[in-house]
Design goal:
This protein is mainly alpha-helical. The protein has one domain: 2-Layer Sandwich (Protein Binding, DinI Protein, Chain A). Strands 1-2 form a two-stranded parallel ribbon. The longest helix is centred in the last third of the chain and has 54 residues.
Length: 184
Amino acid sequence: MSDNVKVKFWRSTLKKVIKSIALTAAASSIFLAGSVFAAQKIAVVNVQEVMSKIPQTAIIMKKLEDEFKDDKAVLAQLEKDIKYFQEKKTRDGALMSKKEIAGLDKQIGEKYREYQTKGKAFQQKTGARQNEETNKILALVRQAIDNIAATDKYDMVLEQKAVVFSKPESNISDEVVKQVSKLN
């Protein structure tokens, strides 16, 4: 699994989490009416920003990279083998008999099927582990948000993306980063 695919997966996972938080915040705000907000102390937090800044995210990425490096190496070798056989067919195909070409095509097909099977299993395993680890980090973030909300007596904490406008002093993202970073 390439680094680009991992980054896309993390972004996709974070976007799903953020969307669920935003929908929850939006739904809860529908039930509250104008004058109720005036008496409440409200904070906003950018969960995606928090996740990108805390050291636990980098540690988990490294841990997962190490955990799956052998599987990744197997896939990389299969890619090289497929490419080698394809180049050999292109380069030497004119000099090869039909039987040799058919044998080479068979090898390419077998390697490709093996690559597809192992690649799919790899993606499923890494995806499950990334979700598991992301959920652990999100639990820490939620805990920090709850602690800050209780300490600073916030009535409500909303996802920043669900809010059209907020004063900079109502953003607690940096406080959340500090608190989660201490848990490292």
